[in-house]
Amino acid sequence: MSTEAQDGTLTVTDNRTGQTYEFAITDGTIRATELRNIKVSDDDFGLMTYDPAFMNTASCRSAITYLDGDNGVLRYRGYPIEQLAEKSTFLEVAWLLIHGELPSQSELAQFTKDIADRMVVDPSVEAAVKAYRQDAHPMGVLEAGFGQLSTLYPEAKEIESDPERMDALYNTIAKMPTIGGVAFRHNQGKDPVAPDPSLDYSTNILKMFFGADYAPDPRLVRALDILLILHADHEQNCSTSTVRSVGSSQVDPYSAVAAGIAALYGPLHGGANEAVLVMLREIGSKDNVPEFVEKVKNREALLMGFGHRVYKNYDPRATIIKKACDDVFEVTGVNPLLEIAVELERTALNDEFFIQRKLYPNVDFYSGLIYEALGIPSEMFTVMFAIGRAPGWVAQWLEMINDKEQKISRPRQVYVGPDERDYVDIGSR
Ligand code: ACO
After folding, report:
1. Is 189 left (phi over 0), alpha (psi -120 to 50) or beta?
2. Could you list the active site residues?
3. How confident is the model over 341-349, as a mean pLDDT?
4. 216 CB within 6 A, ligand 1
5. Residue owning the nearest CA to atom 2 of ligand 1
């Protein structure tokens, strides 16, 4: 839809004063700061909007990802996710997100080489991971790993330098799976497997996880690549807006990405794919699905992998993943949890509770089943999400840094605490 069609003006009357104000509407928005002109007296701070959890606030103008949650549409730089999942590769999508256009053959070849050459991590990262408890959650390790990259590449602080920032952005995409692989192997008490620059990105991931001798079926490699494409960006989600917000302090991009990893770790965001598998195992059998759905309706449980802040229709990524599930299970045999998932989806989609609230499966409902079929344990699912999301984080970071309208991120608040009062000595309390 053309945003110009939404342009015009808004006239507002302040019933406290009877005064009328006119605001420009651009791209279907009004400037929140202009509301500050609405005052009851000269020393009044002016009107603010109150928007907990940013339910209705655009914090940036972005040309990266278009999402229409009501109609289940997702496009990267204008290209429908369905076409990218069918025809593209993860690294091509990464280039597209960062640079805005699909790469030429030579650009893609150079980018593929640049990423492959950067996948290796400094030995100190492996040494640091070895110092963790063997059961350390790999997302905690990944988060710390990016803090460590910030110490290893201090030049990344030069965020105005194009070569320095491109170096950091490419390193982020390249080293995310390597650190994830080191964490994965550490959990199993195994030594890390070095990346092989002659391999494609997704094959490299599987080899770094399962060993240099592991020879993955190309259909599994392709399924993994598709999963990464589907996770590559999702506009201003919790972790991406965290990367932007932390990056707005002009910290180096590795540190901003470490914050994004922390945000993704939460069970309401990237942690949901792990939670889905836990839930499916707890349900245990198709026959127990009605009982579980009743528990959800009684607010005793959440149906993990269902619902989305923005999609109020089927998540288009879930449709593609469901198809990828079939391809993977052709190679690996069907995961018995799939039967429970399908029954759960069928039951929920026919139940008034879910229909009324427009709750549909999201990207995480089926992705865990694929990861499990690939032999990846559930603690690693969110790491897989982080690997996929890395290009989105860095593309959004770059857009934010280049956006002259952006400043350090700093929301307002409505203070609801006590009025001024005098300190009471501890002995008198
Ligand atoms: N199971 C049961 N009820 C749900 C669920 C769910 N998964 N999701 C939402 N609802 C209900 C809420 O209780 C609420 O009901 P009410 O209006 O009667 O109080 C209504 O649906 C609206 O839900 P909100 O929580 O207001 O929706 P919000 O946009 O804040 O939350 C979220 C979105 C966090 C994704 C939520 O749907 C959820 O917790 N889902 C499960 C976790 C999950 O799958 N997260 C992954 C998200 S996708 C991603 O990050 C990649």
Report:
1. left
2. 269, 308, 364
3. 94
4. no
5. 302
Nearest 10 degrees: CA dihedral of 209, 214, 220, 223?
Answer: 30
Mean pLDDT of 404-412: 96
Instruction: State how far the Cα of 111 lies from the Cα of 216, in Å rounded to an integer.
Output: 23
Q: How far apart are CA 429 and CA 427, in angstroms?
A: 6
Does the structure show a pLDDT above 70 at 2?
no
Buried b / exposed e over 244-254, threshold 16 CB at 10 Å, is bbbbbeebbbb
Interval between CA 381 and ligand 1 midpoint (Å): 20
Please tell me the distance from the alpha carbon of residue 244 to that of residue 176, in angstroms, as a whole number: 18
Taking the C-alpha atoms of residue 290 and residue 387, their distance in angstroms, rounded to an integer, is: 35
Q: What is the pLDDT of residue 1?
A: 46
pLDDT at position 120: 98
More confident residue, 180 or 321: 180
Instruction: Bin 305: left if φ > 0, else alpha if -120 < ψ < 50, else beta.
Output: left
Identify the weakest region by mean pLDDT among 72-81, 133-142, 200-209, 318-327: 318-327
Output the residue whose Cα is nearest ligand 1's atom 40: 307
Whose Cα sits closest to atom 10 in ligand 1? 307
pLDDT for the residue numbered 336: 86
Cβ-based neighbours of 306, under 8 Å, separated by 6 or more: 348, 354, 359, 360, 361, 362, 365
Residues 6+ apart with CB under 8 A from 363: 230, 231, 315, 317, 318, 321
Q: In sequence order, which residues have a C-beta less than 8 Å from that of residue 17 and are 6 or more positions away?
A: 40
Which residue did the predictor score with more confidence, 170 or 329?
170
Interval 12-64: pLDDT, tens: 999 999 999 999 999 999 999 999 999 999 999 999 999 999 999 999 999 99
Tell me, in angstroms, the distance from the centre of ligand 1 to residue 27's CA. Answer: 28
Ligand 1: which residue has its CA nearest to atom 16? 357
Q: Which residue did the predictor score with more confidence, 187 or 271?
A: 187
Q: What are phi and psi of 20, to 5 degrees?
A: -115, 140
| Euclidean distance between the first and the last CA atom of the chain, given in angstroms as a whole number | 62
Give the 3-state secondary structure of residue 67: strand
Mean pLDDT within 239-260: 98
Q: Return the structure tokens found at 37.
A: 């002109």
What pTM was estimated for this model as a whole?
A: 0.92
User: Token digits for 427?
Assistant: 């002995």
User: Distance from the CA of 349 to the center of ligand 1, in angstroms?
Assistant: 15
Coil vs helix vs strand at 29: strand
Distance 1 CA to ligand 1 centre (A): 27
